[in-house]
Design a protein that fits this description.
Strand 2 (about 25-35) and strand 3 form a beta hairpin. It is built from four helices and 13 strands. The protein is α+β, with helices and mostly antiparallel strands and about 220 residues long. The strands form three sheets. The chain has a six-stranded mixed beta barrel. Strands 10-7-9-12 form a four-stranded mixed sheet, with no helix packed on it. It has helices spanning about 20-25, 45-55, 115-120, 185-205; strands spanning about 5-10, 25-35, 35-45, 60-65, 75-80, 90-95, 100-110, 125, 130-135, 145-150, 160, 170, 180-185.
Length: about 220
Amino acid sequence: MAKQVELAVSPREVTGKATKKLRKAGIIPANIFGHGETSQSVQLTTLDFEQLRREHHATGVVTLKLAGEPKMQTVLIRRVQRDAIHGHVLHIDFLRVSLRDRITARVTLHFQGTPPAVKLENGVLLHLVDMLEVECEAGDIVDAIDVDVSSLEHIDDAIPAKDVKLPDKFTLLTDPEELVAKIAQTRAEKTDEAEAAPAEAASETAPAQGEGRKE
């Protein structure tokens, strides 16, 4: 289970276009909604959110501590709106959850081990998928799912999503046949094979020594 973290937020009265002033001051506007309760307008500092994102990937359950209220709220970060050019966070939506609610989430993959094909066949390990979509109880969300790649022994060996070991009570929602990792040839080896093929074909079609035109 991912460690639950606290995030300080405060009530927000500024709405609409006026929120630009908040962002310039290093404050992110946000909303808390869901679970049959009234939506709340809140705000938090950019510094606090970026620290959360760096340390916890912002994928697990977050406990919001709202200034002036004794009751904390457990939420998931459901949507982060960013500036298309600079990537700055413009707005965050927090979804209220109970730790027993079954939810869908995208969890980061953590690749472990060294494939024998990399050492023995000069292959290259390709990470084709960085996250898997799963269903689980909110309180069971993990920061990452480990993927052991030490079973990849030959070129073109691959691991589909269905072979990734999930924590108990997790359901895979990603296409089970989608590949998450694969061993590929290096570009140099592909070039060598491509150059060797015409040479072999030429040797097969060349006349044997001593053969010539019959008189």
